[in-house]
Amino acid sequence: MSTTDTPAPTGAAGEGAAPPVLVRRARLLGGEETDLLLAGGRVARTGPGGSLEAPDGARVVEAAGLVALPGLVDLHTHLREPGREDAETVRTGSRAAALGGFTAVHAMANTDPVADTAGVVEQVWRLGREVGLVDVRPVGAVTVGLAGERLAELGAMATSAARVRVFSDDGRCVHDPVLMRRALEYVRSVDGVVAQHAQDPRLTEGAQMHEGVVSSVLGLRGWPAVAEEAVIARDVLLADHVGSRLHVCHVSTAGSVEILRWAKARGVDVTAEVTPHHLLLTDELVRGYDPVYKVNPPLRTRADVEALREAVADGTVDVVATDHAPHPVEDKDCEWAAAAMGMTGLETALSVVQEALVETGLLGWADVARVLSSAPARIGRLEDHGRPLAEGEPAHLVLVDPAARRPVAPEQHATQGRNSPYRGMELPGRVVATVLRGRPVVLDGALVGEQPDDAHLGASRGAPHGAAGAS
Amino acid sequence: MASARPVLEAPEIGRVLTRIAHEVLERNRGADDLVLLGIPTRGTHLARRVAERLVAAEPGAGPLEQLVGSLDVTMHRDDLRRNPVRALGRTSLPPGGVDDRVVVLVDDVLFSGRTVRAALDALSDLGRPRAVRLAVLVDRGHRQLPIRADHVGKNLPTAAEESVRVMLEEVDGRDAVLISGPDGAPEPTTEPAAEPAPGAADAEGAR
Amino acid sequence: MRHLLSAADLSREGALELLDVAEEMAATQAREIKKLPTLRGRTVVNLFFEDSTRTRISFEAAAKRLSADVITFSAKGSSVSKGESLKDTALTLQAMGADAVVLRHSASGAAHRLAHAGWSGVGVLNAGDGTHEHPTQALLDAFTLRRRLAERAGGDPARVLEGARVAVVGDVLHSRVARSNVLLLETLGADVVLVAPPTLLPVGVGTWPCRTSWDLDAVLPDVDAVMVLRVQRERMGGGGFFPSAQEYTRRFGLDGRRLRLLPDHALVMHPGPMNRGLEISAEAADSPRSTIVEQVANGVAVRMAALYLLLAGEDAA
Q1: Pfam family example for this protein (chain C) (predicted)?
Q2: Burial A120-141 (b: 16+ CB within 10 A, else e)
Q3: Count of CB atoms situated within 10 Å of the CB of C82
């Protein structure tokens, strides 16, 4: 890719709007070479490759050989702020997201304080706006303090400036069936959705890894697949009963896929996501006791991985969501039982999807746009994301070089987390550019206005505005 | 070991052991209170052969089992940290033990003297002999400790870089003492380390 | 041998070598002077994050008999908190010049982590990690079993355990002893059957190299040895793995009646400490066929052998 700026006539770009951008010869959704002229935050014109002229002052992005997708939308991100700025901040997480090709992320509610009030969600939303690299959509907690006892003020969060539509106690399961029923019913009034972390707490007390052959040998307490499946089965029946919309977070087992398939066939309004790591990695990796592979839900078996890939291909699972979960080094550099659960994922998600789903022939690039952009945007009710790259649509897009291959080096990631399970693996694909509302935020694989090496420094810059919205 | 040159063959080895047996008897004025302890691996077999000859020469010397045993010195060596970990040899004493008896240590090659030093330490953990003597098939010189043998099969002047190898029927399928020069290519230097327990009797440090 | 973390680390040859070295070590322990100079100048750290007086004393005796310097660090009850502790302790030990660490820890995989996380270069001997493994316990069990069976039948010591039939009875789910024993006995050619209530057998046990049964009475007449595992009440946490202690004893306890179901030559083993009256009755524990006290004595010889093989050779590069 190369970019050139044509001299801008004075006053061409009106009140702070980005100058026009001409993306030349990008393969739209992996198809025909297309020119895209972005202006005023929208796709102003499209035309066959090489057909459009750059207007005065436009930045020209040569994209021959690159695939253009609508900007990616993550339905499941942990930005850790407020409370765990040692793990991640809205700023560092936004940088990671932009570098990973995302233009919108849903920030999970398990912060400290928990995002269970309008004040906290507005704080996170405002921090995201200040950073301005991706649209940060806060997820609201379903229950006060994630305690699973009484509903949080879902309506207040929905009507706040953050316009919360996704509610989740992620990290914990809303296991009380009555409470889950009430939540499902209540969010209908705000066009919201409950995103359930499906994990029966009693069946997983002290659980450390998938319960099966490997756990039996390693002597780590098992995390049975049924603990996830039983909750999903209950929830789809509840959603059916009360006529509500349900979203299932990070589905990880073949049995869960079967239940979802059954529920969808029955007409239940249920959607589901799978993480990149559950599409690629298995519990065999735990044999070395390296906590970088410790995650909730746990890595499962090869058969589960295959079933999940099929489920994405046939639409049973709607979305790939990162469950990006950065942790400070000390929370992973210890014995397995003491380690935190979670893996980073924003900067590797697209590569893993290419590896697991595109290169295996299960998905085309148009399908990738569906599972990583349009479907999550629809579930999260993000009206101006996940739209087609067509004239008049919002100009959120990502350019990917599908021919690139690169070993994963977590030290070079923009996230503060170094807990990438793909360390040293060679993965295909590279995000070359990310454009948010017509403004390139990533070009040549680096954040605009920064050398690639600046990436780590961002971590310490923090966000002095952090306290603004705290209640 | 292409350049190995035999210095003793089976018949000479037999004669030498017979002589040692007679020397031991003569020095001890009979077989009373004698215990022969071989140092594994080859010393054990040599001790047994000497004991057989001793019984033949002095029928009153008693059954072989009362006379001969083995003494592993591995755990008393001072060079354990310089070599890969070694398997242990057997230590077995005749029923009467070693207290107040005359112990003849038997080994194949006397070189630096360090093995014998270790053997004396090992022996002192097992009891208090009245006297300790040393019999070796070959003394090749280059002592690093104030130790000398009482009974020597053959004095064999060598260069320090040369390697001496004792082969015995029981272990190697033939009896011979071989000497090979440093020009014998890589074997003399690598072989002792690669195969420490058997067949590397040239340097005691590599047993 | 760089580390001893799992019984699976041992090949058949390696396991037999260790048992043979242990035989020589045991012979030295029958002498008046038991101390050997072998590990003079080496430092062994006993790092116990979990109480286990008998294992700690056994390792301490083994190291001292080989003239190693022994530092015992009982982390339990000290200010050590989880997470930070294992790594920082490892760095401290490295700085103190430890040559080997004997680690007992409540977390499965702790020894593996200490050996391979890149925190320090010391040799690690797993003295029990969570519900994972306890390889020296399996080695001393195999040592005891081999000795006893060889006394009876004779034959090549390398083959005595081939085809030997061993029942391991009790709380397999939480037992590091059972895991190590299954792996080691399989390596040595024995035929193992695990006997436990289904709640105390792990999911996935079907892939282990052994058989399983829920019927102790049916198994006992066909074994050369029965290894009774301790019921780990402290790990049960109200889990209701069985209805009551009385029912457990009735169905899986080794009592006088079951003792008489065993063939005459069969041995009774237990890794200790015993819950007398729960998994084993006094009659069984104190019977002439019980090797329980012998196992303790053999533990020192086996641990001497493990320390010898770990530490006597040249320093690792």
Answers
A1: OTCace_N
A2: bbbbbbbbbebbebbbbbbbbb
A3: 14
Rounded-to-integer distance, Cα A253 and Cα A278, Å: 9
Fold of A70-379: TIM Barrel (3.20.20)
Is A419 annotated in a binding site? The answer is no
Rounded CA-CA distance A253/A228 in Å is: 8
Are A70 and A382 within 8 A, CB to CB? no
Residue B74 has phi, psi (to 5 degrees) of: -50, -45
Catalytic residue flag (residue A323): yes
**Which positions of chain A have pLDDT values less than 70?**
1-2, 5-17, 450-471
CA distance C17 to chain B (A): 7
Q: With contacts defined as CB-CB under 8 Å, which chain C residues touch B71?
A: none
State the catalytic residue, choosing from A304, A323, A331, A367.
Answer: A323
Place of tokens 């007398």: C276
What pLDDT, in 10s, does the model give residues C29-85? 988 899 999 999 999 999 998 888 899 999 999 999 999 999 988 876 554 554 457
- Interchain CB distance below 8 Å, A211 and C176: no
Q: What angle do CA A333, A336, A339 make, to 5 degrees?
A: 55
Under DSSP, the state recorded for B81 is G
Q: Two tokens at A157?
A: 């969060």
**All structural domains of chain B with their residue ranges:** 8-162
CA A152 – CA A114 distance, rounded (Å)? 10
CA–CA separation, B88 and C32 (whole Å): 20
Q: Please, which residues bridge with residue B106 across strands?
A: B38, B135
Instruction: Tally the C-alpha atoms within 13 A of residue B124's C-alpha that lie toward its C-beta.
Output: 8
Distance from CA of A218 to the nearest CA of C (A): 5
Which structural domain, as residue segments, surrounds residue C22?
7-131+297-311
Question: Could you tell me which residues of chain A have a Cβ less than 8 Å from any Cβ in chain C?
Answer: 205, 208, 211-222, 224, 288-290, 330-331, 333-339
The architecture that CATH gives domain B8-162 is 3-Layer(aba) Sandwich (3.40)
Question: pLDDT tens-digit profile of A377-410?
Answer: 999 999 999 999 999 999 999 999 999 999 999 9
Radius of gyration of chain B (CA): 16
Question: Does the beta carbon of C59 lie under 8 angstroms from any beta carbon of chain A?
Answer: no
In a domain, C118, yes or no: yes
